[in-house]
Write a structure and sequence with these properties.
Blueprint lengths: L3 E5 L2 E4 H23 L5 H26 L7 H5 L8 H18 L5 H21 L1 H4 L18 E4 L4 E4 L1 H23 L6 E2 L4 H20 L14 H25 L4 H26 L2 H24 L3 E2 L5
Antiparallel strand pairs: 1-2, 3-4, 5-6
Helix pairs in contact: 1-2, 1-5, 2-4, 4-5, 5-7, 5-8, 7-8, 8-9, 8-11, 9-10, 9-11, 10-11
Length: 328
């Protein structure tokens, strides 16, 4: 697909860039809508955090990409050539977290949890558009499917340079990001509705985003043929590692919180073990995929393990909600 949207003199504007710009705009707008809708604090806090997140997220996004592709950059000019691309989504996520931490450090009244909640939910929606931009850029694609019965969009996409039909992983990522956005909004609404007797904490939505997005990367980054590999090896994928770290850490956080609220329960031990088991199963399937190339079976097992880890995390989270009985 032609990525060029228009020419303005010597300036090229690409569809991929247009989609990414729209994704960023949507993230900002939806963040403010959620902030206003759920009355989570001062809009100035959100605005300041977003403004700080732009440069910090930009830097970390580039650094993470560079750490996996340092051989591409031979000079300082290559590092500073930002037009050529080379960014990671997790760098942006980490940048937002660091920005919120910096804001909290300089202002004790800054509600980092509430701000991150709105940015996380809005970010899930913006990821949908960001992933769909790969239709023009040709990245976030999977293995070659030679069987002609699979040669149709949105399952596969034809790569003109290679002359092959490739799995359109970006479509699956966009679909699941949309599901994550819907789930987060439902939980956001319930946690903010005192009439139903449940009230979550500020920061819960951000943690749930890290949980579900991390699980999604466990399966989808495995499908990428253009994945980022740590230290230039051909097996350890950056986004899978970060996804596993985040969804396991979030599950442990919820388990600890559940213990403080409810006292010791058996599921507080089981929940982190399920998350670790999902990581182990995914690692095993990755090794099996390299050795035996049984793609359908391996991807199915990884998908089920990541789905189980996500449901497991949401379950343990629900045990942390404060149930309140209102008088009549």
């Amino acid at each position: 697909m032609n990525n060029l949207a228009m020419l303005l003199g010597s300036i090229c504007i690409y569809w991929h860039g247009v989609f990414m710009a729209l994704a960023i705009a949507i993230a900002v707008i939806v963040s403010f809508i959620l902030f206003k809708l759920f009355k989570t604090g001062s809009c100035n806090d959100l605005l300041n955090c977003i403004l700080l997140s732009f440069p910090v997220g930009f830097v970390f996004s580039r650094l993470l990409y560079w750490s996996c592709n340092f051989e591409e950059y031979e000079s300082l000019g290559d590092h500073l050539n930002f037009i050529r691309g080379g960014y990671t989504l997790y760098g942006v996520i980490i940048g937002v977290m660091i920005s919120a931490g910096i804001m909290k450090l300089f202002s004790s009244s800054f509600n980092a949890g509430a701000v991150c909640d709105c940015i996380a939910a809005a970010g899930a929606l913006s990821i949908v558009l960001g992933r769909l931009s790969a239709y023009f850029s040709g990245d976030n694609i999977g293995l070659v499917l030679k069987n002609e019965k699979y040669h149709f969009f949105p399952l596969t996409i034809y790569n003109e340079q290679r002359g092959e039909w490739l799995l359109a992983v970006f479509n699956f990522e966009a679909f699941f990001s949309l599901i994550i956005f819907i789930v987060l909004c439902v939980i956001f609404a319930k946690n903010s509705n005192e009439k139903i007797g449940m009230k979550g904490r500020h920061g819960d939505i951000a943690l749930l985003f890290l949980l579900m997005h991390g699980c999604s990367q466990g399966i989808f980054d495995s499908m990428h043929v253009d994945a980022l590999y740590v230290m230039g090896n051909s097996f350890v994928r950056l986004q899978q590692i970060l996804g596993a770290v985040f969804f396991t850490a979030v599950t442990v956080i919820f388990a600890i919180r559940s213990n403080k609220i409810n006292g010791f329960k058996w599921y507080q031990i089981v929940a982190p073990l399920v998350a670790l088991a999902a990581v182990g199963i995914t690692l095993g399937m990755e090794l099996n995929r390299i050795s035996y190339h049984n793609f359908i079976r391996n991807y199915s097992v990884i998908f089920l393990s990541m789905l189980g880890a996500s449901i497991n995390g949401i379950f343990i989270y629900r045990t942390t909600l404060n149930k309140q009985t209102k008088g009549v």
